[in-house]
Amino acid sequence: MANGIYKLTPLAGPTDSNWDRATDQGEIIVRASSSGDARVVASEAEAAAAGKDPNIATTQVMASAFRDSHLYSVQLIEGAEYPKDGPREVLSGSFEGGPSGPRAADSI
């Protein structure tokens, strides 16, 4: 299956109670095989960036906001600046600085 470039964008508002159970990481762009795979790529990268024990990382992947359609939307980007060919990976965005989306100010 050919890869595409997908943008994951926070969908829920900053006061949405769903953010209480997951971290808002802001907008992320990934190369993936589908919109569902885009959610997996982003959540795996988020867990890897946390540098947790593999058992904890598995739990973090499953609890990631990227996997929740109420928290993040996924959109295929046509004509993206990134090539479709290549590995499944995060192309833009960062997990290292903590939350950067609508709830970022709440975490300070």
TrEMBL record:
Q: Which domain of life is it from?
A: Bacteria
Question: Where is the segment annotated Disordered?
Answer: 85-108
Q: What is this protein called?
A: Uncharacterized protein
Q: Which organism is it from?
A: Devosia pacifica
